[in-house]
Amino acid sequence: HQIRRITEMLDGCRRVFIYGVGSSGFAAREIQFRFMRLGLDVEAITDPHMVKVSSVLIDDNSLVIGISLSGQTQEVTDGILAAKKNKAKVVLVTSNEELQIRDYCDEILHVADMKNLDFGNKISPQFPILVIFDILYAYYMENDSYKKVQKHKETLSALRMK
Q1: Cα 131 vs. chain centroid, distance in angstroms?
Q2: Which residue, 7, 10, 56, 139, is most buried by CB atoms nearer than 10 A?
Q3: pLDDT (tens digit per residue) in 30-83
Q4: Whole-model pTM?
Q5: Of all helices (H) and strands (E), which one includes residue 80?
């Protein structure tokens, strides 16, 4: 049910901003590329300075997705607070159950947690983030799939053009 609610947010917004720093930033860029190919106006913002700058562009037609396994990455939490102040919808992807910014999020997507996952010394910290977004992507494709498949074909054609 939660994934369905988030896909409805994606369908109902004009623009999506994805905030992530470090490994979460790498995942944000992959997510941007995948959803952009379906015609969604999405931007991954991985630079702390640009998180602040982008907050000026956010409004009630925006969706902000923050990615922070710890739930405490200052740049991401600052971006979430600014987004909520501007009446945007907010989704946080985290493995932290005890969040101080819980009240500023419309949805919190919890991902798998492993001690020291953020250090990347056992498995990539991007892995649980990308898995949950693969699921989200599949649900997103279900709604108005003809239009999204057509846009996907158009973007693939654009990539093949010489």
Answers
A1: 13
A2: 10
A3: 999 999 998 899 999 999 999 999 989 999 999 999 999 988 899 999 999 999
A4: 0.88
A5: helix 74-85
